[in-house]
Amino acid sequence: MHRETRVANYVLASLAIISLTLLSLPLSGPVRAFKACSTYVMNPIAYYGDKGAQRFANVPSNIRDLIAADMENRLMLEEIKKATWIQAENDSLKIENGRLRAALSLRSPTGRTPLWAHVMERDPLQWYRSITVDAGTDEGVTVNAPVLGQKGDQVVVIGRVKEARRKDSVVLLVTDDLSAVAAYVASASTETPTDYEGLLQGQGISSLRMNYLPPDAKARVGDMVYTSPTSATFPPDILIGTVSKVLPLDPFLAFQALDVQPAVDASSLREVMILKAQPEAQPLAPAPGKEEASNTEEGAP
């Protein structure tokens, strides 16, 4: 007991001497660097952020790299904890969805796998109608597979595969006049959020036309247009574009129409993401031995 007390006193005295020595020394670069490193060992959270990084300006580069790696490691551990929790929630929701689908006798949706492909060709006569990409049936691409693009960090609708060959595929753009997508327009207003569903159709030009909205739809310029959960081709809630014009209500039509500007212009496309359908799991065939045994039992007197 006395020995432990003496050791604690020696440690306390040593720390006190070190502290007094550091306080008495002038605040030169090496001293500030040593103080920053010592303090980081005691309380690393205080050194997160830009101000904390400035305190290590006089620390040697190799030590600064180690401290930066330690900071990044601590932050990544926190992110891993959050991701683990989110994954656990997702797994729980999948199990619950599976139970509900089984109870309602609903068919489980086919999973999709993303495949990135580069734009190979644009026909000047079909500029807003189709493009050719360097992925085909050899990579698992099928007709009507949804094709998406990227705008910043957001995924947007580009079109769907209309022709799949071995090494390449032809993508029908949403701006083609043969293209139609079930979509809804969501109000950007946070005070009165509303959404209306209609049919988004291509016109063979750079803009789209959204028809069959309710006559009392209060859509505005700048509202966002997304794929509908009722779409047979595209996943729900994928951005298509923004409302560019609210057309006057035609007294001879029973619906409201809008002009929509696509989120990504066809001329800026360099690569696209094709969502391949995963093959459905086939039921396992019974083992030959068990099947023969079953037949034998059935035929037995």
Brief account:
The chain is 33% helix and 28% strand.
Write structural notes for this entry.
- The chain has 301 residues and is α+β, with helices and mostly antiparallel strands.
- The protein folds into two domains: 2-59, no CATH class; 109-279, Beta Barrel (Thrombin, subunit H), CATH 2.40.10.340.
- Helices cover 33% and strands 28% of the residues.
- The chain has five helices and twelve strands.
- The chain has helices spanning 2-24, 29-42, 50-54, 61-104, 288-299; strands spanning 112-121, 130-133, 146-151, 154-164, 169-173, 180-186, 195-202, 208-213, 224-227, 239-246, 256-262, 271-277.
- The strands form two sheets. A six-stranded antiparallel beta barrel has the order 1-2-5-4-3-12. Strands 6-7-8-11-10-9 form a six-stranded antiparallel beta barrel.
- The protein is elongated.
- It starts with a helix and ends with a helix.
